[in-house]
Amino acid sequence: MTMKKLRILMVSPEVAPFKKVGGLADVVAALSKALAALGHDVRILMPRYTELRGFEGSEPLERPLIVRLGGHEAYGRLWRQPLPGSKVDCYCIEHNQYFGAPSVYVGPTGNEKDNGQRFTFLSRAAIDFCEQMDWIPDVVHCHDWACGLTPVYLNTTEAGRPIGRAASVFTIHNLEHHGWFHRSLLRFSGLPESVFRSDGLESMGELNMLKGGLYHATKITTVSPTYAAEVQTPDGGCGLNALLRFRASDLIGVLNGVDLDEWNPETDPLIPQPFSADNMQGKAAAKAALQKAYGLAVNPSVPLFTVVSRLANQKGLDLLAAIADRLMADMHIQVAVLGTGEPTLEHAFHGLTARYPGRFGSYIGFNNELAHLTIAGADCFLMPSRFEPCGLGQMYSMIYGTVPIVRATGGLIDTVKQFEEDRVLGNGFVFHHPTANALYYTIGWACATYYDHQAKFKKLRENGMSGNYSWDASARKYEAIYDWAIDSRLAAFR
Question: Whole-model pTM?
Fold first, then answer.
């Protein structure tokens, strides 16, 4: 383990609490805080979307950021924004053309094709930020496809400069999103034509930012050990499985942790009253408040199953929609769904709410306070994902004594251990096949355990609440990965 205090630059399109689309934002923030707590000099670079202008403590830097692109320079304004609860500074790039809209992955014109230029700008800005701040990191840690060109710059245009000696670590948060663009983006980027080849940025005649990052990064991580294995298979590799098998010796899965400053039932200000494994009175209060919030009958005895998720088939929520009428007919349960996403699923859950008043509730949209309540007050939490790189919801639920029901994939199977009735081991319910029937019968198993084996269900809650979900262990694994990457990078210059 390193004793050296490292300079680490995090590059990400989203960072909580400033801008969040998914779990990526939470991970970048929490990992940065954990690494800084270990004594490392951690800085974050991200776009300054319009919503960031309302955050307190933000201060502009006097010097503009000059971003050197192909044949021209672009100017951005840098803002320093403290990351709450940490010693980490987040540097936000203001540029109205590229980031002058609230959306992360849809550009100011509303056209997703803008993303090529927007995130090329971000990838290149990571290089120019370091040089202009006279702060050369030991490691540049890039998160997902939007930062995919940064390792490419380090290996090509910057190879003979001090910044070019920095190691790069690329984390796959979700391999489904690649960043495909026309090859003309290469000219805009200022990268050499030589990188547009099958062992680089080229993919089926187009430029693939994710592929470029995976080829050029010093080391690659995924957000769980199982997902690291899954991405090397045809089913899980999203067309990049051969590349990831080629780079298998440089690929490792590190399970995400949880920001316990935000997700902790003993200190959470967003729930009616605190609770712990030793005193669950507050959970009963949260359940009653949850039932009221969704228009459900206030009944402490009925098992309450909840969802907090992007509404998408990837999340397996079409399976829940398919069996919801059977659940309502066959089981004495309540269901509450919080999320937004695919219109067909939004419509389906809205319709179920109308058909089963007092038993099925939904909130189409996102509300952070309601998300905390929806997890804290439930008896069981549903994550029937077809694939799930890591997942945070199942860990949040266990911390709050809410028993997860998950499919055996990715980080879900790494964190949720199957209930063993005889020995009362495990911390949740796991099913394997992504089918409506498999989900239906697993919910039935949980429902039967709740009603007929209350002591065992209580033990399941306790098992989940006793787990260690902090970022400390994961941050120390990243320390080792950074050392590994730095040694590999320096060896290339000897």
Answer: 0.92
